Amino acid sequence: MTSTRPLRADASRNRQSLLAAAADEFAERGLNASVADIARRAGVGKGTVFRHFPTKDDLLAAIVLDRIDALNAVGERLLDAADPGAALSEFLTVAAEQRQQRDLSFLQEAGELNAEVTRVRAQLFQTVHRLVDRAREHGAVRADITGADVILLMCAPNYVTSYVPDASPDLWQRYLAIIFDGLRPEGAHPLPHPPPMSLDATHTPD
Amino acid sequence: MTSTRPLRADASRNRQSLLAAAADEFAERGLNASVADIARRAGVGKGTVFRHFPTKDDLLAAIVLDRIDALNAVGERLLDAADPGAALSEFLTVAAEQRQQRDLSFLQEAGELNAEVTRVRAQLFQTVHRLVDRAREHGAVRADITGADVILLMCAPNYVTSYVPDASPDLWQRYLAIIFDGLRPEGAHPLPHPPPMSLDATHTPD
Amino acid sequence: MTSTRPLRADASRNRQSLLAAAADEFAERGLNASVADIARRAGVGKGTVFRHFPTKDDLLAAIVLDRIDALNAVGERLLDAADPGAALSEFLTVAAEQRQQRDLSFLQEAGELNAEVTRVRAQLFQTVHRLVDRAREHGAVRADITGADVILLMCAPNYVTSYVPDASPDLWQRYLAIIFDGLRPEGAHPLPHPPPMSLDATHTPD
Amino acid sequence: MTSTRPLRADASRNRQSLLAAAADEFAERGLNASVADIARRAGVGKGTVFRHFPTKDDLLAAIVLDRIDALNAVGERLLDAADPGAALSEFLTVAAEQRQQRDLSFLQEAGELNAEVTRVRAQLFQTVHRLVDRAREHGAVRADITGADVILLMCAPNYVTSYVPDASPDLWQRYLAIIFDGLRPEGAHPLPHPPPMSLDATHTPD
DNA sequence: GATGAATGAGTATTCATTCAT
DNA sequence: GATGAATGAATACTCATTCAT
């Protein structure tokens, strides 16, 4: 949060290349993707990676940050939608599409990440909570469902399809639909366990 | 399948310690858990690990094998149950309980593992297919659900709760219930995507 | 053959230290010399070895390459000498001096080494063949001697003296002289076995 | 030299299997041949190897011992031969045949070996010295040749042919003949270096 | 005596990170 | 600012040797 003066043009270009390259490399190789490969893919020297991101983990955090921010923007926009049920459904669809593009599921391993991520994630959580509250009030989802539930279930469709070797890239739609059916009021059975109190945003559902 | 003569008493004890220690260590540290740490945890020398499991991957395979076998046994028993819907539900419950005990989700990263694993996994798949077929015929699950769907969704409850820092150990029950509601015929909406053809069992949903 | 831009000054210095240290270490400990020891002896970190030579074998190959190249250069120069007999003798002397400086006889154990080595070795073989042909035509060596014979016998003087614990460093001269006498036409007895067809240069007489 | 009571029948059989297996394995794999492989090849347990030979080096020593003893026996018998020149030639032939059967040239690496070996080797050296002295007195070898010279040159033919990939098993005969021609009085040129004083038999020309 | 299970020092190699150019 | 050379901790795996069975 040090008062970042704007980067020189080339530096900013490098930063972008790096984020893209890193996201690709991580998506392909998981957390073990090597900094050297990322640098090569970005067309810069290894040293440059560390000038921009003091640590491999910081690089990871930056990627996650971008992603969460983008998703949060979508969520906030949908808060004003006319049909709250459709809005929630749309939000989950966008979230899954985003995850599908680049599988960052391995992030689960990556422990706490940095504080900035936690902050942005907390924002996203707020947004989801509001989306869910509106949907619930509208009767679009069952009464016993919370924002936390949706946050947790949000990644399941992609997770689930990641096991299918040569899956259609849209297979997640099937499982999102099934899960969403489970969230609806119609035919709902009482739930055997209360929802988690709050997700402290230090962990990583995205 | 080499006609393994029964292990010496101490050797067999070591093998058990190793499997337990390795499962714990893998669960805590993921695939990068080091053989040295596993050995230390099991209270044996590093060399002993390799005597029992020529390769880190073989160790992993042994753990997975045990797990799948156990689960398959449960599934086969449930094939004879009176209520096919309850049987399927029971099966998913046992699967989740097993996964809850030790999280092996990192296995997703692991490549093919060995052939034995693939074989046993294929058996398990068969069992699940039969459980699902029976449940469907009984009207306990919707008509458009296949065995493959259930295999894929089976792990979702644990995956989802793994994001909650200090979750109640039974939280998965909540998400299994939601997902199972999504599988029921009541209130089902048509699914936007066909199910995957077949899971080739070289990959790792367990 | 990748268009290697010239190494940075320090890197090139390190490369030289490494080659020297490795040659010494190999000479003292044989093929089992450890990369760690080589690094220590060169005064660099272990990682630096692998930056310069991706593999222990590549390091070995580099050493061998240098040696063969140097010897070949001498041989080619001697092809123009006035007295072909003296030229051959001189060549064998230089070869033995080179080997005496650093004993690489352990190389016999080493497998194929890399293709570059094979290529350069084939060149050296050509050179020797020509030296021997000229000497034979001049009557300086017996008629039934081939280039292959000389290539094989070339290393014998050093091999032989390597058994003498505190030998004079010039002792090889004695055995080179004896062997060379065996190659002369005077007093030659017919040979009981034909010469080898061709040495395929994937093996390692140097 | 502890007053070895005669071995039990099976033990003695094991000892022989071991020596044979070890010689083969060493010949095929060099000094790095593993004790486990030797044991397997001999059809005994690994522990048995160490009961008979407290150390891998001791096993090696035992093999060498057998070999030297056998060769020495031949040498001593030839001391009484009618033609001292032929006797020396015959001796060198037998030595080369023996070495050809099983290549133990890697032994050079094997440092000092044990005292027993040194003792037996000293005997062999004596024998060779006497064979050479007789041959010299008879004019069968040049006057400036010593027993030490012959001991050293003795192994050269096998060494030299070990570089030829698919050599005829008798190729050594060619090089023994060349070297022997170099030892003859006819056409001998004066030698540029005095012979080594004495070979202290702690090193290993066989 | 024989066996093979256990041990741990040793090895090549990788990779995040630092720093001289 | 950018580069890539240097570093060394970490890792899977091997093998001579010891020792309980």
Automatic annotation (TrEMBL), chains A, B, C, D:
PANTHER family linked to this entry: HTH-TYPE TRANSCRIPTIONAL REGULATOR BETI, HTH-TYPE TRANSCRIPTIONAL REGULATOR RUTR
DNA-binding region: 34-53
Region (Disordered): 187-206
Gene3D superfamilies given in the database record: Tetracycline Repressor, domain 2
Domain HTH tetR-type span(s) in chain numbering: 12-71
UniProt-listed Pfam families: TetR_C_43 (PF21597), TetR_N (PF00440)
Keywords linked to the UniProt accession: DNA-binding, Transcription, Transcription regulation
InterPro entries the UniProt entry points to: DNA-bd_HTH_TetR-type_CS, Homeodomain-like_sf, HTH-type_TetR-like_transc_reg, HTH_TetR, Tet_transcr_reg_TetR-rel_C_sf, TetR_SbtR-like_C
The keyword Chaperone appears for this protein: no
Identification of the protein by name: TetR/AcrR family transcriptional regulator
